[in-house]
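Reminder to self: keep the SMILES exactly as supplied, no canonicalising. Ligand is flavin-adenine dinucleotide.
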Amino acid sequence: MELFYSDADLAFRDEVRSYLDDALPEDISGTFFGYGRHSWHQMIRWHKILADKGWVAPNWPEDHGGTGWSPMQQYIFDSEAMMAGAPRLRPFGLKMIGPVLIRFGSEAQKKRFLPRILSADDYWCQGFSEPGAGSDLAALKTRAVWDGDAYVVNGQKTWTTTAQHADWMFTLVRTDPDAERPQQGISMLLIPLDSPGVTVRPIITIDGDHHVNEVFLEDVRVPADLLVGEENRGWTYAKYLLGNERVSIANVGQSKAELALLKRLAANRKRGNVALIDDPVFGMKLADLEADFLAQEVTNLRMLSQVRPGQDVGALSSFLKLRGSEIQQRIQELAMEATGALAAPWREADRPRTDDYGMHGWLNSRAFTIFGGSSEVMKNIVAKQILGF
Ligand SMILES: Cc1cc2nc3c(=O)[nH]c(=O)nc-3n(C[C@H](O)[C@H](O)[C@H](O)COP(=O)(O)OP(=O)(O)OC[C@H]3O[C@@H](n4cnc5c(N)ncnc54)[C@H](O)[C@@H]3O)c2cc1C
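Structure tokens returned for the bound complex:
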């Protein structure tokens, strides 16, 4: 990939590397297979360090605290940070609701929320999915009824990642059940999670961790100034947000770091007398994966460099998410194969975190082709909107 870097890009990469050398504390650095292996507190610490430097929201316009970097520079920063073992920042404020507020929010909302997203004083979660409304999100039933001075919200959200840590939830609610199309009766509300009537319950996923939750909303009062944009236009804002979410899930920088880790692992493990990386069967799988990763990396850059800041990435994001999540799963599969029998005892109690490869990452990665839109749904979107079927 370095072949594609200009001299200016290389100089920028050196600047980023030297910053990471100085600024990334050793006790929070480490590359792991799978998401979320840095603790919440380590992630917040790194967020605040980047915020002090002014580098926490490279994708935001400069007048709101962005860096003014090109897509190539943003990618260089992301991949260098992942290669250096920096915690991966959660996307909910920085990549999801932040850009929505910048584009569609009121001036008061921008003033109130954006600085607190940058500083990590507020953390956000995404309350879109419901039991019965995942792929078919427009079927959502959570109801918001206007009652004099506030919306009264009743319903249930599910799979709400990090709701147990978050201060706020951006939420899709039904405000017009009689709209001609279900998409036309949906609004976006910002809900403080400490509101009376909000209950957060954990869901433990197959990797044994607590990433996601159910969120119950019972007569929760939400004042009018927490409506994003116009009533019944929430679907438009949600589509813009999901585009940014899908690009973020494609997560090319993390795949690059994990692929490097996988190669180190394969070089140090033996199959018979041969290092695993020199075993023809394993080597072929690794080469195949790396070729697909390089194609993904170049495609990602080629496509993102055509998108202007703030522009809707549209169906392109579905393509990047589809390929990116599949590649991440293949990395986890090979990591588990490389680890062999040692893959099983992945819990921290069993061995040190830095050796955390194998089964945990693999189990964790099962969800990559589901969240943010399943692969089947991404293929439908690509077929319809890019290939024109
Ligand atoms: C770990 C994890 C974290 C998540 N985090 C969040 C979060 O923070 N906030 C949030 O709002 N949501 C979150 N989600 C929810 C996620 O977006 C949904 O799970 C996803 O959209 C799929 O919806 P579903 O689970 O209801 O499955 P369903 O929609 O019921 O799909 C079931 C199966 O049917 C297939 N299918 C559905 N429709 C079609 C179709 N039209 N054509 C072909 N195949 C189809 C799907 O591909 C899938 O295989 C998370 C999910 C997971 C697993």
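Points to follow up:
The beta strands are 124-127, 143-146, 150-157, 168-174, 186-192, 198-203, 212-223, 270-271, 274-275.
Residues 125-129, 134-135, 159-161, 205, 211-212, 367, 370-374, 376-377, 380 surround flavin-adenine dinucleotide (CB under 6 Å).
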